[in-house]
Design a protein that fits this description.
single chain; 640 residues; alpha+beta; Recoverin, domain 1; 4 domains; ten-stranded antiparallel sheet; six-stranded antiparallel sheet; 19 helices
Length: 640
């Protein structure tokens, strides 16, 4: 049974709060919310007092469902209701200050102002609260009752979660090696890849293929590879076997040796799981946000600079609209050279509520940058919708004013462009808005025109009204294309013809520093390209599963790296010289995978790899996010 101290400690953990609330409705966090009313109940179960406006603003209107990760991200933003918060609201209508309000005053407040209730709802509330039936409400006592009830529900849910986890821990058994001798079958080069088991930790079979019709002919040539069969899981098994008896290890290693006749494993330093520091609330903190935008086949995003005044420990937490396929790389710039320091990865909890990074940094003569990365895998496989045809939603009504849908989209774009979150657009904010909208920067002349014609704050920042007026002028401009120009802006920001936000996705991240306050600023906006790919390759070479294949010519290394649900496959050709013109043609066919999509249109792709070069072949993700991806691949290699 959970102790009071254990439950109290859990209350301070926002993730436990979210998980405990979620499990009052479902048996697992992998099930999605489909009802807005359930979302409201979960917020209340977590000690929040959500208004209808708040619920509407956070409920995903596009697909009408919410994942656990999304709920947790929202919960972290909303502070629990306090006694002072409730008391302030009542004191505003307690004109004589005696601590009581009449039924008539309460009814007037709740049915005509703010989040309006029906007469029946108000009457039911007063019947429960007015215990002595004197027609007055002791609102201090009422507030205390509301808060204590909420606290009791929250504590009960946490206690249930704590007990459940204890029981699961007792039942959990770990068997590294079965009692019987394990069987590892070699795979013929011409064989198709066998279906894997349903286990999440199944082996990834890597097969170097040569078609049987060409085998005899190719084996006589020096520019082809002999066939080999490799199991990367077998390489990792050597380390796991250390805990077993010598006789069991001997049996298993004999099988591995036969399996590795063409394989020489490469030792790597595995990336350790990051945990949130216990005293994180005392650290200095800033938040930043951005979006990935798709334009034709390119994906663009903001890049950031992180500045600190002295050596410090940096902790970063990343939350994305889609829980996978977003990574933040921390790079150090020194003498115009960029070095990858670390990257965000899952927190270690199954399902991964966020991606974390923790590292010690020293400003010295270096500058630190954060480069967001996505493979674009889901963008490549977005289903076409009927709303993407030529029919478009109306943007201007009969009174030549913006429609409600148009206002909603403009407001969303304004919020996404407000990078520092102060409710206004600085020149820097507006410049990045211009780059996304039209690929043009805001020069001095353009900004002067903005200041002369549209509402600005005292700090010379564009207000929300000024932003709306600007786009109304765009529609009315006789020299322009009117509404079509507005449509171009909406499409650049990821909206389709039905004003659905489908061709972009958002993320935010929190940067904490223990010894000093960090400064995070946007430095540029541009296409994800060579620098991000170089950082990914560096991560693969540091932390990926790798193996040399002993073939002629030598020097081919296969790499596999898993980052928070994304599997990246790469091939390295580490022989020859940069002047060597000969390259290797590598085809990686992942069509035997289960529940996988690639950032390419198909699961089979070929790359040309030059000497001393490493190239990424596939980024693989789960096609159905509710199920595990089980990648398998077959590789054929030829020297040109």
């Amino acid at each position: 049974m959970a102790t009071t101290a254990s439950v109290s400690a859990a209350v301070s953990d926002a993730y436990s709060e979210a998980e405990a609330a979620w499990l009052t409705l479902f048996d697992t966090t992998k099930v999605n919310l489909t009802k807005k009313s359930d979302f409201t109940s979960l917020l209340q179960q977590s000690g929040r007092n959500p208004s209808r406006k708040l619920v509407d603003s956070h409920w995903p209107a596009e697909d009408e469902q919410m994942t656990f990760e999304q709920f947790y991200a929202i919960l972290r933003k909303i502070q629990p209701q306090t006694m002072n918060d409730l008391m302030k609201s009542f004191k505003k209508i307690d004109t004589n200050g005696d601590g009581f309000i009449s039924h008539r005053e309460l009814k007037n407040l709740l049915t005509k102002r703010g989040e309006k209730l029906s007469d029946e709802e108000v009457q039911a509330l007063m019947d429960d609260a007015d215990t002595n039936r004197d027609g007055k409400l002791d609102y201090a006592e009422f507030c205390q009752m509301v808060l204590s009830t909420s606290k009791e529900c929250q504590t009960a849910a946490l206690k249930k979660l704590f007990t459940q986890k204890q029981e699961n821990e007792k039942k959990r058994t770990i068997n590294i090696l079965p009692n019987s001798t394990p069987i590892v079958e070699t795979v013929e080069a011409t064989a198709t890849i066998s279906e894997g088991s349903d286990n999440d930790e199944e082996e990834d079979d890597l097969v170097v293929m040569v078609p049987s019709s060409q085998r005899h002919q190719l084996q006589s040539k020096s520019d082809t590879f002999t066939t080999a069969s490799v199991s990367l899981a077998a390489v990792d098994a050597k380390e796991k076997l250390k805990a077993k008896s010598s006789s069991e290890i001997s049996k298993f290693q004999n099988v591995i040796t036969a399996k590795e006749s063409k394989l020489s494993p490469v030792k790597k330093r595995s990336k350790s799981k990051v945990k949130e520091p216990k005293n994180l609330k005392t650290w200095h903190h800033v938040r930043a946000k951005s979006c990935f935008y798709v334009r034709q086949s390119n994906i663009s995003c903001h890049q950031f600079r992180v500045e600190v005044s002295k050596p410090t420990t940096l902790f970063l937490s990343l939350m994305s609209q889609i829980p996978t396929d977003v990574t933040l790389f921390l790079l150090r710039e020194s003498s115009s050279n960029f070095e990858m320091i670390d990257y965000t990865d899952g927190s270690g909890k199954k399902g991964g509520q966020s991606q974390l990074l923790k590292v010690d940094i020293d400003p010295g003569e270096s500058v630190y940058h954060l480069f967001p990365f996505t493979s674009g895998c889901y963008f490549s496989h977005l289903p076409s919708k009927p709303s993407d045809d030529n029919s478009k939603k109306q943007l201007i009504d009969d009174d030549n004013q913006f429609t409600l849908d148009c206002k909603r989209v403009l407001d969303e774009i304004f919020v996404r462009s407000d990078l520092d979150g102060d409710g206004k657009l600085s020149r820097k904010d507006f410049n990045y808005f211009q780059i996304v909208a039209s690929e043009e920067e805001c020069d001095n002349e353009t900004w002067d025109i903005m200041k002369e014609n549209f509402e600005m704050s005292e700090e010379d920042k564009l207000t929300r009204k000024g932003f709306f007026d600007l786009h109304m002028e765009t529609v009315k401009d006789e020299q322009g294309n009117g509404v079509e120009d507005l449509w171009e802006t909406f499409k650049a920001f990821g909206y389709n013809n039905n004003l659905e936000f489908v061709n972009a996705w958002c993320f935010n991240f929190d940067v904490y520093c223990e010894q000093c306050k960090p400064e995070v600023s946007v430095t540029s906006f541009g296409r994800i390209g060579a620098r991000e790919e170089s950082a990914m390759i560096d991560a693969i070479q540091r932390h990926g599963h790798s193996a040399h294949v002993k073939t002629n010519p030598p020097g081919i290394v296969f790499h596999k790296l898993e980052i928070h649900g994304r599997t990246t496959l790469a091939v390295e050709y580490n022989q020859g010289s940069e002047k060597d013109k000969s390259s290797v043609s590598v085809n990686v066919d992942c069509s035997g995978s289960n529940n996988c999509v690639s950032h390419h249109k198909t699961l089979s792709h070929t790359v040309q790899v030059a000497p001393l070069q490493t190239k990424i072949v596939h980024h693989l993700l789960a096609a159905d996010l509710k199920k595990s991806a089980k990648p398998k691949w077959a590789v054929s290699i030829q020297k040109k």
